[in-house]
Structures are given as C-alpha cells and as structure tokens.
Specification:
The structure holds 2 protein chains of 2 kinds. Chain A is of the alpha+beta class. Helices cover about 35% and strands about 20% of the residues of chain A. Chain B folds into 2 domains: about 55-515, Methylamine Dehydrogenase, Chain H (7 Propeller), CATH 2.130.10; about 520-650, Immunoglobulin-like (Sandwich). Classes of the chains: A alpha+beta, B mainly beta.
Chain lengths: ~180, ~650
C-alpha cells in the first residue's frame, strides 16, 4: 500500500514535469522564445465595412480560394490597409484546373508555390471596375504583370473574364472565371 | 509496507520533489505567455530612478511635434513643440515664439512633421541638433539638444510637400529638402493639366553652419517627379545624396493608378560637391524668391523672422555631372545607404523585391557613359550597370531599410506587415518578424549613420486596431521594440506614440545627457523686457500699451496686484523667472487671456499679451506646482473703464504689517 502511494507521487510528479516542459517547449519553438500572435486577420470587428478576406469568406463561390489563402497563410495580407486589387477565381475556375493540381498545391511542401500563385492574383493599388479598363497591365504582388484587355465591354485579365466587382474596405475584389498562373521563374 | 526501506522511500520522495521543482520553473510560465515569455519583461524594465540607454526621437506626424522616448522602456520623456503651437508651453502663443511660425503665407500654427534627423560628425550622430521637416508648408526645423527647444525654422521656396527631407550629409554640411509635389516654376496661374509642361521638381540643399545656422545654399531644378525620400552618401559615397522618385509619369490626377504605370522610376543621385564647384564657377541663376528664416536667439530669448528674397538655382543642362538617374523598380519609397556607403537600397513599394545599387558600379557606369537615355538633361544610367543585387520576394510593400553594425539590413514591409532581416552583400533573407500592424518606418539607433549602435529596432506601425484598450475611432499609432542582438529578432514591447510617428532617430543617452541644460543663467538674459531683480518690477504705460515687468520666485509674483489698467489696453506681461535651480519653472495664466499660459524656465523671460474687454478685477496665478505654497502664488489686475482716472499702481506685500 505504502509502495503504491509513493509510486503514485512519483508518477504524478513525472507527468507534471512532462506537461510543463511541453508548455515551455511551445514557447521556445518559434523565434527565440517568442510566440508571435497571428496578425491583423484575427481582429474581431463585425461592424466595419468588410475587407477583402471577409468578402471572400462570405462568398460561397470562393471557398476554394479561401482554403488556398489559408493554406498559404496569406490571410493577414488580405486584411491589410491596402489598397489591394484582388482577382478572385471562383470555385468553378479552380475545378477547371487539371485533375489533381489543386490537391497538390494544398500540400504543405508546396506552400511556396501556392503562395506565389495567390500573390499573382493580388496587386498593390486600388483599381475599380472602371479604371482597370484604362491600363494595359497591372504589376502583381509577385512582381509579374497581368495583361488587361477590354473587348466588347468585357474586361479580361490574362484571359480571365471579370464577371463581377465588389468594393472592399481595403480595395476591390474582381471575380474572375480563371485561375491565373504566374510566369515560370 | 514494512519491507520498503526508508532509504528507498527517501529516494523516491527526493526524485518526486525534484521533478516537481523542475517542472514549472520557467519564469512567468502560467502568467506571461506569448510575447512576454522567457525573460522579455526584464529586458525593457528600467528600475525607478535609473535611466534608459537610448533617446528615441519620434516625429509627431500630423501633430507637428517631436516626441522623445527612452529606450528600451518606451517611456515618454518630452514633447518638443516644433511646427505646431503648444498651449502647454506657450509655444507660438507667447510673444517670443510667434515669429518661429512665420512663413511667406503668414503665421501658420501647424504642420505635418515627418522625418527627424540627428546631426552627424564624420557620419556619426553627435547629439548637437535634431532636424525635422514640415511637409505641408515646406520648412525644415532645427532643434537644439542642449535645451530641447526649436532653435530655427527655415521655409523652402519653390517647393510643395517637403517630404524627402531633412536628411543630413556626413558632417551636417547640408540637410536636404526634395519636393514631393511638383509645383509650377515659377509659381503661376496655369492649368493643372499642363503639369508635365509647367511644373517642376526642386531639390534644395540647406547649409548648416558650425553654430547651426541654416541657409538655402542652392536648389537643383528637375522634372516634376515626386521626390519621396533621401539619404546622403557616407564614407566612399560622401559627397552624394540619393533621392527616390515616383510619378516619373508626371501625372496630376488619380495618382494611385496613373503614377504606377512605369515599371521603373528613378533614384536621383546628386553630386553635391560638384554643385559646390559649379556655384564657385558662377554657373547658377540667382532668382527671386520669398521665404522666411526664423531664428530663436537664446540670449535675447526672442525669435526673429527674416524674409529672404533670392535663391541660387542650378540646372542639369548647365551643370553636367551634377545629377544622374538610377532606374529603380516600382515607385521606390525609402532610399537607404548602408554604413559603408557602398550600397544604396531602393525600397520599391509596389514591388516584392528590394533593389540594391552599388556606388562603385555607379561611378564606373558614369565613367563609361553607360547611359540608357537622357531625361531633362539628366543621364539615366543602365540599370544592369548599377544594380548590385536584389533581395527577391522578401515581402510585400517594402518601405524603409536600416542597418546594424554587423552587416545586416532590416526592411519594413507594409503590406505583409513585417520586418525582414537580410544580409548586405549576399542578399539572403535571414529572419522575419511580424509587426502589429502595417509597419511604416523602422529605426535602429544610428541605423542610417556610419556607426549603427543598434541592439534595438523600433517598428513604427500605422494601424493599431485591437492592440490597446479602445479609445473610440481614433487610436494612437504604436511603436514596437525588437531585440536585434541575436540571430533572431525578438519582440519585446509595444508602446503608444503621439500623432503619427513617421521616421524616428535613436542615439545613446551619453551623447546628449551630459550636455543638457539645467537652467538659463540670469546674467546671460539679454531679453529686452527682462526684470533681473524684484526691485526692478514695475508697470509702464505707453498709450494703450501697458508693459508689466514681472518676476517670479517661490512663491510669489512681483508685482502681484496691479491697478490702473483700462478696457482696450494691450497688456504685455513680461515675466522673468528669477529661479536659478534645475526643474523649477513657473507658469503664468491670466483669466480671460485669449492665447495660452506662459511656462517660464529658470532664468528666462516670456511675454503674454492680454487685452481686457470688461471692467472688473481678474486673477492670475502660477500654473506649475512650484512649491508647498504654490497655491498662494497669485495676483490681481483691476480693470477700469476707458475714461477712468485710476492711477497706475502696483505692489507686492502689505505696506503695513499684517495684524
């Protein structure tokens, strides 16, 4: 009985030791003891005009895009003060990619490639549906340019048609029917 | 169990005790989570009575002032009024300092202050002065760091939006002022659509004498690009200044679209030593101008505004070799020169990359005439001939770069809201740390000089949102302090700031601390209305003007009661603080005065104008708690009708002994 009692103390102590060490380990794991909180995308604000990320999250047609943004950890960029112009491919546009492409991109090891593709859909600058027609091209966040064309009143961006534009608090979301692929590096 | 030896029991208990003791002894484990993990709190803790290691001077942005903080604590030490009136200190309200805010547009009580810049000697911050630009009505101010008072403000002619300013040369030979907005040159009534034709961009060099006097030495007439930021060369590149440009498209409407079309804008490289040669050769045009130069004289304690009426202008066409353009991608914002003077970093704000030019390559390209074209008389150097390297896709929206003493650079990225550390020369990204949120400038003490002192980096963030307890729609901007002494940046502290700190400067405290003035010696007080002893206190009438020669000492005014003032008088209270003791200012506040208080430093004289409008007896008092009998420090002014014949009298104390 007494042996059990002592063993119990020892085992309990051991588990307390392990659990607290693990907690400390979490703190140490990232950047010299500092665990950075997530950025501006975690700000809780249901009253202000919606930002680009909130608009995308609220759109049933963009669940794939949102999943991709989350996988690439780019949420904070889309809530930045901007202004940003984001071309937002619909779920159907992602579905039109070759079989397996999206699944591959969502794998953790392809995060950089995915991030590059998403950044190719965003430009610093506030181009609304009107003034986007006045430019030949827009420099995207990757440093590459997309070509803007207007034919019969229809605006296309690198061949993707703009099928709607939503104003966000921090820029504009142009819904497009094609996933844009950045040029090979 | 009887057979369990006591020895074994003891061993078990000791092990259990050790495990328990070892388990939760991380400092602050349960309480200090996240950024306060480990020993972070102690790194920013300055015990009561001890000093911070660094001064940090932060621009007040739209407050027009400079705030002084201590690092690493972040404690606010002082607000220095510069471009905005400050009722607290009487700045811009008292008769002595009104002239500091005079311009060619008249008295201006406000400006937008962006970039503090410490004076340097041999490329090292020397703690003599700090300069700051007024962005709105173009001006540059010099603040004396022995008194922490604004000593001079000079207006910049032919300019609009003085943003790329007031960055210093290596020995504070000059501070510069590049115009952000093109303006018609000469200023005239023209169609705004004629921007590209009639508007120009002016770069101004302000000379700074050994005593600190500023003067517009010369201006360089360039196309109406938007000159955004600047830094002068150092070491091998001493003698040059680099200015970023955007809107090389020369558009004047919807710039957020129209000024973002060119793939590359320019960094303008100015050879100011060459400019000095051309000036000596007389290759300038002296043109009419109208601008104010306001100086505060510490002995008379008065500011004087002098209007100046001409300026020397150099043009690239007349002065070959004076300016070159270095093509730089995507509307570069900050331009920062590394401590060796070799590398010139262009922070292309619409880009993901940083472009770094080589000073050595630039000289070779000039020598070989590797010009792409000539724009307005300025050769554009071949990009490939001047670029040293690119920090690729380091983040989004790079704005500014500062340096440490170990060959590392730190760049702020606005859109991705982070600080990125990279290696100068190899261009590899070494570390990144988020900022909360949307960082603009960053600052390392000495980080734009030849000798960075940094073990700290301060991020100056534009967006605060949920970082502090909410204070309604407007939130203070935040500063964040990082420890950069190790391989990885470590966020230590988050602290609120005043106005909008754009740039900041930091300096080790010992370069300022010992020179800080404690009081103004009375024997050096040459104020024309000074009263150097109580026996000289008096009131003098000259028509409707009444001059009160008043003194303060703990804890009374002399005189304290004044009679014979009439409605419609202009009463000038010239108050001299007779104290000769550190940190004993006296305040002076007059009921119904339409301006502010006076806050008079020991040994100083300041003047408040009061224009009584109604009859009666009105009190004045000391506003700065000066002693145990501060509440007794008061007086009255009797105001009589205009036509009254009450004699002018003043007194201090009872004629008869108090009963």
């Amino acid at each position: 009985m007494e042996r059990t009692y002592y063993l119990l103390i020892l085992i309990t102590s051991f588990f307390l030791f392990v659990s607290c060490q693990q907690q400390a380990g979490t703190d140490q794991s990232n950047n010299a003891g500092i665990e950075y909180a997530k950025g501006q995308s975690t700000v809780s604000d249901e009253l202000s005009e919606k930002n680009i990320l909130q608009i995308a999250i609220g759109s049933a047609d963009h669940s794939t895009l949102v999943a991709a943004v989350q996988a690439a950890e780019l949420e904070d960029v889309l809530v930045n003060a901007g202004p940003l112009t984001v071309f937002a491919p619909t779920n159907a546009a992602f579905d039109a990619l070759p079989e397996g492409t999206l699944d591959d991109l969502l794998k953790p090891e392809n995060k950089a490639t995915l991030a590059r593709i998403i950044k190719f859909h965003a430009a610093p600058g506030g181009y609304d549906a009107n003034n986007i027609r006045g430019v030949m091209g827009i420099g995207q966040a990757t440093g590459d340019k997309v070509k803007v064309e207007v034919n019969d009143g229809v605006t296309t961006v690198d061949g993707g048609q703009i099928i709607g534009t939503v104003k966000a608090s921090n820029g504009f979301v142009h819904v497009i029917d094609k996933v844009l692929l950045p040029p090979e590096k | 169990m009887k057979n369990l030896s006591s020895n074994f029991k003891n061993v078990l208990l000791v092990i259990a005790g050790l495990l328990l003791a070892a388990s939760c002894n991380t400092p602050g484990n349960a309480y200090k989570s996240g950024a306060l993990a480990g020993d972070v709190a102690s790194q920013v803790y300055v015990p009561p009575g001890e000093y911070d290691e660094f001064y940090a001077f932060m621009s007040g942005g739209f407050s027009g002032q400079i705030s002084v903080h201590g690092l690493p604590s972040g404690r606010l030490l002082r607000i220095i009024p510069v471009f905005s009136v400050d009722a607290e200190k009487g700045y811009g309200f008292n008769e002595e300092t009104k002239a500091m805010l005079n311009t060619s547009h008249g008295f201006i009580p406000w400006d937008d202050a962006h970039h503090p810049e410490l004076s340097q000697t041999n490329g090292v911050t020397d703690g003599r002065w700090i300069f700051i630009n007024g962005n709105n009505t173009p001006r540059v101010a010099r603040v004396d760091l022995s008194t922490f008072e604004t000593a001079e403000i000079i207006e910049i002619p032919n300019s609009g939006g003085n943003h790329s300013s007031p960055f210093t040369t290596e020995n504070t030979e000059y501070v510069v002022a590049g115009t952000r907005f093109g303006v018609p040159y000469p200023q005239q009534d023209v169609a705004i659509d004629s921007y590209a034709e009639n508007f120009k961009g002016m770069l101004t060099y302000i000379s700074v004498s050994e005593e600190g006097d500023m003067d517009v030495a010369f201006q360089i007439l360039l196309p109406a690009f938007d000159y955004d930021l600047a830094h002068s060369g150092k070491g091998k590149s001493h003698g040059w200044t680099f200015f970023t440009t955007y809107n090389t498209e020369e558009k004047a409407t919807l710039l957020e679209v129209t000024a973002s079309q060119n793939d590359k804008d320019y960094i303008a490289a100015v050879n100011w030593k060459k400019a000095e040669e051309y000036l000596a050769q007389g290759k300038f045009r002296e043109v009419a101008a109208n601008y104010a130069d306001n100086e505060y004289d510490e002995s008379t304690q008065m500011a004087t505004s002098t209007m100046k009426n001409s300026v020397k202008i150099l043009t690239p066409e007349d002065c070959p070799g004076l300016v070159y353009f270095l093509p730089t991608p995507k509307s570069p914002h900050g331009v920062d020169v590394d401590p060796t003077g070799e590398y010139i970093v262009g922070n292309g704000k619409l880009s993901a990359d940083l472009t770094v030019h080589s000073f050595t390559k630039m000289l070779a390209a000039i020598e070989n005439e590797s010009f792409e074209k000539v724009v307005a008389g300025v050769p554009v150097l071949q990009f490939e001939e001047v670029v040293a390297g690119v920090v690729p896709e380091a983040g989004l929206g790079p704005l500014h770069t500062e340096f440490d003493a170990n060959g590392n650079a730190y760049t702020s990225f606005f859109i991705t809201s982070e600080v990125v550390k990279w290696k100068v020369g190899s261009w590899e990204v070494l570390d990144r740390a988020p900022s909360y949120y949307s960082i603009g400038h960053l600052m390392i003490p000495g980080g734009d000089s030849k000798e960075p002192q940094g073990k700290y980096l301060v991020a100056l963030n534009k967006i605060t949102k949920d970082r502090y307890l909410p204070t309604g729609p407007e939130l203070c901007h935040s500063a964040q302090l990082y420890d950069i002494s190790g391989d990885k940046m470590k966020l230590l502290l988050d602290f609120p700031t005043m106005g909008e700190p754009h740039y900041a400067q930091g300096i080790s405290a010992d370069r300022i601390q010992s020179k800080s003035k404690k009081f103004y010696p009375l024997e050096e007080n040459k104020h024309p209305y000074a009263t150097l002893g109580e026996k000289d206190a008096r009131v003098e009438r000259a028509g409707n003007n009444v001059h009160v020669y008043m003194t303060t000492i703990r804890s009374h005014f002399a005189p304290d009661n004044i009679e014979g003032i009439k409605v419609g008088d202009k009463v000038y209270f010239h108050v001299t603080n007779l104290e000769q003791d550190w940190d004993v200012p006296h305040g002076f506040a007059m009921m119904g005065a339409n301006n502010a208080e006076l806050l008079i430093m020991p040994g100083q004289t300041e003047t408040l104008l009061w224009e009584p409008k109604t009859v009666g007896v009105f009190p004045f008092y000391c506003t700065d708690f000066c002693s145990a009998l501060h509440q007794e420090m008061q007086g009255y002014v009797r105001v009589s009708p205009r036509n009254s014949d009450i004699a002018m009298t003043w007194k201090l104390g009872e004629d008869d002994p108090v009963q």
